[in-house]
């Protein structure tokens, strides 16, 4: 089945079986391996992508659902010239990355939150990343990182 | 100890591998693709115990896309994995099934989906036996032997002084039995390996792993080729916590065998359910404690019996038995200690290394009983710990005396200060919430100690442009060791961290360094890196002294320049010195080998010098419990640890925060549930790993009591917080509810049931 | 396998009648796992999420209606829907799940733990089922007949859930749930209540109560409603109501919770829900 969609701002076209999971289309066909498979059941958030700006678990979508939609993966978060976006910088700065496996999904969920709500409360931050499991950090520094981006925006930086 | 000022250590440093991780560019094993790559998927046993009568894979083999199917008979080598004697675990079961989920056949196919569907078509006839599921059953006379040598995996004793005499002197005695459940590591990245055969007869295995050298040993043995033909490269690893040792050897060996047989790369990447069922768990335990003390609170005797459920195969049970044995008495100065520690086989998923390695289990039990003793003595629980806590010059439970780096009392003092300002509890008890505070004190031996040879290899290579490449035999699984190694080298060589690159761990490049376990990365790994850097520094200093025409002791290395001690204007860029050193014939690369002092002890009584250092910690946890639902809110959690010397502040805090939540999960939320030997919650919905909404507000306090065996005085921190947090939680719940829970996890359900009745 | 995107209900019905082994999919968050686990196979998936009519939330003079393909996240972030519906939707899974999962999908999946099901029942939701033979309306509480079993037939589409305006204007509803952990958790027990208050003492003029995860289906507790109707709520009355609840529910012990815990904790959820309505 032919699927056409925008991925990280670029038109993509793929001819894949209708029951190919979106995660496999992204990783194996498009070669964008930043999106990770942690559980295959939508229970860990490692496979989070943004679909029309909203975080979804790409292991729970079949490829046809991407047709005509806008997809953003972690590879699309880095700016064109290789410069890191503020949220990526913040994750490194605050020590919010340890093994890095949850990080792409975590960053995408954070980005979706900050775009919708640039000054989120602690509770709103928690809710936004409640579907992203991290086993390494204990979450404290992840929340700090998200807050720091919000604080910088607040100060007009 | 002369206070030296450091520029690259003791501060918060950004992770040097952060960029590739936040951009998604870092390749984890399952991200790799090689031409003609095939996929492996295991067919697993669906009974917990029995004899394999027949395997018929003809239907499976005929499925289009299936390339080959491996059975035990197809393994060129001995079909064994095991880190220690008895080396009792097969890659593929051939005669006997010992746990539900054990691998019997490996299907290699063009896609993973095909391999998986073929696995379902393999017909295996098993003559089932009644599985032995409980430790008491396993220990009974005349019961079926799970392994030929019997159902005891390993048993050891620790004898210090004379406990009988000790209890006679005691004026108060408390005695109880405690239990802990099975915990799953639940790293986000399931296990994965990719074996790539090379044209020159070598084979390269990329692996998500913790112990690449163990992997190489296993692969070469099972492939029946010399180890020098096998190269293991650790790919970026998404967490391990002790769980990727045995299983990496299993799938690494299988993938290699298939790859060599077919002449093509073979990838095996586990699904989450396979990861939970088919890789090791943390041992469940039953621990009996008896503690005797004088009325004034002096603990005079402790007698402890530990029984660990080791599951179907030995894995690292012998080491966990020993570590539990050595730590059971707690961080206290006790003259008479007797410990017996045993692990037995059962027909369940095998148990092995898991962050803390026996220490969380005994610490929970030990610290629960210390609180119970405090209550019996009517002494404040923190005061009781302060009174008995180990100090410089005291003998540990193994009779080892440390004159340096025993920072326990300082951690207790830090907690005491915090306690003064923390939430008052009694006044707030209202109709809904029950408030409570719990403390724990703990110790965790750093590095291998009595578990065996403790060596690490490292390489430091400076190039003529002044940049440095580091190689180490120990792995970064997220804990930040790459960054620590970079900091150490940068500090020694006086260069900035951006000039340092740490290469992937590669068994070709450095001396066999054993496993990255026991919180030994910074300590023993750091020492190896430190030594190698010192050698390179020698060449730079020699060269610079020639260039400056000065004495060597006048040379200072700082900020990518070489200076003269008393003359800031006399400076040469480090790269020029490096280049000159090369052209003059001074080596600017060193391969170092760091060997920790050997453990020296009596194997019958475990008395002697066992560890190079201990990390000490004191935790305080303030909670409130909802008496109507059993929900627990952690209001405050303070973890004070003696780390010897802080290398990377950000990294250490990350380990304390993450390790504490790991321990909190063990104590409150996580439980692997077996039903007739089958794990029935092998997924992330029913195995409750903490989400962000379940996190605890850990505040880290670091104490530095210089450790002479670590670089710049540092000690490890990866494991200690697990035990501290778990034990503090249990004590907090007891304080809040008035009910003493002697079993982990203490779930909200357990709490509600207990306080309602 | 074929994957189709009908843009009208009529087209969807044509597809489903053209292929026996076909299944409707909306968000897919339950269905995809069931397919991966091998419980369901299908030659044709008919994706309803592009049918505009199914994605609307509408208010009329008499009613408010939620299209079956409205996502749980859209319900959770609504500014005007009844509180228990918002709370139920918000408590499901995670943002990733809620951005895909739909109210219709949650209903047709019919898990006894379904967190949006008990709110729909207490709000008197009527499910509109359309087939090529016509339309029928079923009360939500009559829709479920067992765990994952409903009265929907293979050729029917659940198109919308219709509520009487009353349940929107009398905004006294609340939903509570408890799971093993705080985040991303499946209900061990859930409770939904809707109350119409009367008079100065806010006595109960009308009430609807439904509970989840304590019976094979999400269960309306009519006996409890009868007990509470006309009463002024106080601690004693609630305590007695809990006894009636205990008689009505049939919880089991499973991998998520024991029967005893479910019985013990349901009273507290019930009281919390009342407290929110009566605060």
Model description:
- The complex is a heterotrimer of chains A (157), B (757) and C (279).
- Chain A is an alpha+beta fold and 157 residues long.
- Chain A has two domains: 75 residues, Beta-grasp domain (Ubiquitin-like (UB roll)), CATH 3.10.20.30; 69 residues, Orthogonal Bundle (DNA polymerase, domain 1).
- Chain A has five helices and five strands.
- Chain A has a five-stranded mixed beta sheet, with helices on both faces.
- In chain A, β3 and β4 form a beta hairpin.
- Chain A is globular.
- Chain B is built from 18 helices and 31 strands.
- In chain B, 29% of the residues lie in helices and 26% in strands.
- Chain B has a seven-stranded mixed beta sheet, sandwiched between helices. Chain B has a six-stranded mixed beta sheet with strand order 7-15-14-13-8-31, sandwiched between helices.
- Chain C has a domain of 108 residues: Enolase-like, domain 1 (2-Layer Sandwich), CATH 3.30.390.50.
- The longest helix of chain C has 20 residues.
- The radius of gyration of chain C is 19 Å and the shape is globular.
- The N and C termini of chain C lie far apart (54 Å).
- Chains in contact: A-B, A-C, B-C.
- At the A-B interface, α2, α3 and α5 of A face α1 and α16 of B.
How would you concisely characterize the structure shown here?
The complex is a heterotrimer of chains A (about 160), B (about 750) and C (about 280). By secondary structure, chain B is an alpha+beta fold. Helix content of chain B is about 30%, strand content about 25%.
| CATH homologous superfamily classification of the domain at 171-278 in chain C | CO dehydrogenase flavoprotein, C-terminal domain
Structural class of chain C: alpha+beta
Outline type of chain C? globular
The CATH class name of the largest domain in chain A reads Alpha Beta
Order of helices and strands of chain A: EEHEEEHHHH
Strand order of the largest sheet of chain A: 2-1-5-3-4
Quaternary status of these chains?
heterotrimer
Specify the CATH class of the domain at 171-278 in chain C: Alpha Beta
Characterize the biggest β-sheet of chain C.
5 strands, antiparallel
Q: Strand order across the biggest sheet of chain C?
A: 4-5-10-6-7
User: What is the fold named in CATH at topology level of the largest domain in chain A?
Assistant: Ubiquitin-like (UB roll)
User: Which sheet architecture does the biggest sheet of chain A show?
Assistant: 5 strands, mixed
Give the number of DSSP strands of chain C. Answer: 14
């Amino acid at each position: 089945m032919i699927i056409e969609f925008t991925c990280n701002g670029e038109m993509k076209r793929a001819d894949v079986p209708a029951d190919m999971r979106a995660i496999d289309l992204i990783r194996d066909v498009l070669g964008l391996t930043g999106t990770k498979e942690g559980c295959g059941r939508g229970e860990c958030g490692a496979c989070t992508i943004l679909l029309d700006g909203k975080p979804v678990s790409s292991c729970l979508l079949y490829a046809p659902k991407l047709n005509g939609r806008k997809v953003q993966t972690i590879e699309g978060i880095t700016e064109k010239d290789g410069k890191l976006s503020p949220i990526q910088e913040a994750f490194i700065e605050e020590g919010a990355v340890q093994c890095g496996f949850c990080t792409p999904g975590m960053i995408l969920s954070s980005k979706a939150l900050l775009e919708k709500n640039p000054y989120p409360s602690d509770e709103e931050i928690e809710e936004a990343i409640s579907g992203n499991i991290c086993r390494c950090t204990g979450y404290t520094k992840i929340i700090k990182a998200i807050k720091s981006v919000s604080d910088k925006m607040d100060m007009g930086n | 100890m002369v206070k030296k000022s450091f520029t690259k250590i003791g501060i918060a440093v950004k992770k040097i591998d952060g960029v590739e991780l936040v951009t998604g560019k870092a390749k984890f094993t399952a991200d790799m693709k090689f031409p003609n790559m095939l996929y492996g998927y295991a067919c697993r046993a669906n009974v917990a115990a029995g004899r394999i009568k027949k395997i018929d894979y003809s239907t499976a083999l005929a499925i289009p896309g299936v390339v080959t199917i491996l059975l035990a008979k197809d393994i060129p080598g001995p079909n064994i994995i095991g880190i220690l004697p008895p080396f009792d675990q097969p890659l593929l079961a051939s005669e006997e099934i010992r746990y539900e989920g054990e691998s019997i056949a490996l299907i290699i196919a063009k896609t993973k989906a095909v391999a998986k569907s073929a696995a379902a078509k393999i017909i295996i006839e098993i003559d089932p036996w009644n599985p032995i599921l409980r430790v008491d059953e396993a220990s009974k006379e005349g019961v079926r032997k799970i392994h030929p040598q019997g159902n005891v995996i390993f048993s050891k004793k620790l004898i210090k002084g004379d406990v009988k005499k000790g209890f006679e002197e005691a004026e108060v005695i408390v005695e109880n039995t405690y239990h802990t459940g099975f915990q799953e590591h639940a790293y986000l990245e399931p296990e994965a390996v990719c074996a790539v055969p090379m044209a020159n007869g070598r084979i390269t295995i990329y692996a998500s792993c913790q112990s690449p050298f163990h992997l190489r040993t296993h692969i070469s043995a099972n492939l029946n080729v010399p180890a020098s033909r096998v190269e293991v490269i650790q790919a970026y690893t998404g967490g391990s916590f002790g769980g990727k040792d045995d299983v990496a050897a299993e799938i690494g060996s299988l993938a290699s065998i298939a790859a060599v047989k077919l002449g093509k790369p073979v990838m095996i990447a586990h699904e989450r359910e396979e990861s939970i069922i088919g890789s090791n768990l943390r041992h469940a335990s039953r621990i009996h404690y008896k503690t005797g003390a004088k009325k004034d609170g002096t603990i005079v005797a402790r007698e402890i019996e530990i029984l660990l459920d080791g599951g179907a195969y030995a894995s690292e049970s012998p080491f966990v038995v020993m570590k539990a044995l050595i730590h059971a008495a707690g961080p206290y100065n006790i003259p008479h200690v007797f410990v017996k520690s045993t692990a037995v086989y059962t027909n369940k998923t095998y148990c092995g290394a898991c962050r803390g390695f026996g220490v969380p289990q005994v610490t929970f039990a030990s610290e629960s009983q210390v609180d119970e003793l405090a209550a019996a003595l009517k002494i404040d629980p923190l005061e009781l710990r302060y009174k008995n806590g180990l100090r410089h010059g005291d003998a540990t439970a193994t009779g080892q005396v440390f004159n340096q780096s025993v920072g326990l009392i300082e951690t207790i003092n830090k907690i005491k200060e915090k306690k003064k300002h923390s939430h008052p509890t009694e006044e707030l008890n209202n109709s809904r919430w029950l408030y409570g505070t719990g403390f724990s004190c703990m110790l965790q031996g750093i590095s291998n100690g009595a578990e065996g040879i403790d060596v690490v290899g490292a390489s430091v290579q400076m190039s003529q442009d002044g940049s440095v490449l580091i190689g180490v035999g120990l792995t970064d699984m997220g804990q930040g060791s790459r960054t620590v190694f970079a900091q150490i080298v940068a500090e020694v060589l006086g260069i900035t961290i951006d000039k340092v690159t740490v290469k992937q761990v590669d068994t070709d490049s450095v001396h066999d360094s054993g496993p990255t376990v026991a919180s030994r990365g910074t300590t023993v790994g750091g020492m190896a890196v430190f030594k190698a850097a010192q050698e390179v520094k020698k060449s730079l200093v020699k060269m610079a002294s020639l260039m400056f025409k000065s004495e060597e002791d006048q040379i200072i290395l700082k900020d990518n320049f070489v200076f003269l001690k008393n003359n800031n204007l006399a400076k040469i860029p480090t790269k020029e010195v490096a280049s000159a050193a090369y052209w003059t014939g001074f080596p600017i690369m060193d391969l170092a080998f760091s060997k920790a002092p050997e453990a020296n002890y009596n194997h019958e009584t475990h008395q002697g010098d066992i560890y190079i250092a201990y990390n000490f910690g004191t935790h305080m946890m303030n909670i409130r419990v909802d008496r109507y639902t059993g929900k627990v809110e952690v209001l405050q959690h303070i973890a004070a640890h003696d780390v010897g010397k802080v290398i990377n502040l950000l990294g250490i805090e990350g380990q304390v925060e993450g390790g504490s939540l790991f321990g909190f999960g063990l104590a409150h939320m996580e439980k692997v549930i077996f039903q007739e030997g089958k794990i029935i919650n092998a997924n992330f919905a029913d195995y409750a790993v903490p989400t962000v909404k379940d996190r605890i507000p850990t505040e880290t306090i670091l104490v530095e009591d210089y450790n002479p065996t670590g670089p710049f005085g540092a000690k490890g921190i990866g494991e200690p917080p697990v035990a501290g947090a778990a034990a503090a939680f249990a004590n907090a719940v007891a304080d809040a509810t008035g009910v003493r829970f002697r079993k982990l996890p203490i779930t909200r359900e357990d709490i509600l049931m207990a306080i309602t009745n | 396998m074929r994957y189709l995107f009908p843009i009208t209900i009529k087209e969807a019905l044509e597809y489903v009648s053209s292929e026996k082994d076909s299944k409707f999919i909306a968000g897919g968050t339950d269905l995809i796992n069931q397919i991966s686990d091998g419980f369901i196979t299908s030659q044709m998936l008919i994706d309803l999420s592009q049918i505009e009519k199914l994605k609307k939330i509408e208010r009329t003079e008499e009613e408010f209606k939620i299209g079956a393909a409205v996502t749980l996240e859209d319900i959770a972030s609504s500014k005007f829907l009844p509180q228990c519906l918002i709370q139920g939707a918000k408590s499901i899974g995670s943002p990733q799940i809620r951005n895909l999962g739909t109210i219709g999908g949650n209903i047709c999946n019919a898990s006894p733990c379904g967190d949006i099901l008990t709110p729909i029942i207490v709000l008197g939701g009527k499910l509109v089922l359309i087939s090529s033979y016509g339309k029928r309306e079923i009360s939500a509480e009559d829709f479920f007949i067992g765990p994952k079993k409903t009265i929907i037939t293979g050729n029917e589409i659940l198109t919308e859930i219709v509520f009487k305006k009353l349940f929107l204007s009398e905004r006294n509803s609340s939903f509570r749930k408890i799971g093993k952990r705080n985040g991303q958790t499946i209900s061990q027990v859930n409770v939904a209540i809707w109350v119409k208050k009367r008079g100065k003492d806010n006595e109960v003029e009308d009430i609807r109560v439904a509970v989840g995860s304590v019976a094979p289906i999400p269960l309306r507790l009519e006996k409890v409603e009868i007990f509470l109707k006309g009463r002024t709520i106080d601690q004693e009355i609630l305590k007695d109501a809990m006894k009636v609840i205990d008689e009505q529910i049939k919880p089991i012990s499973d991998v998520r919770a024991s029967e005893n815990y479910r019985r013990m904790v349901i009273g507290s959820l019930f009281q919390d829900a009342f407290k929110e309505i009566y605060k």
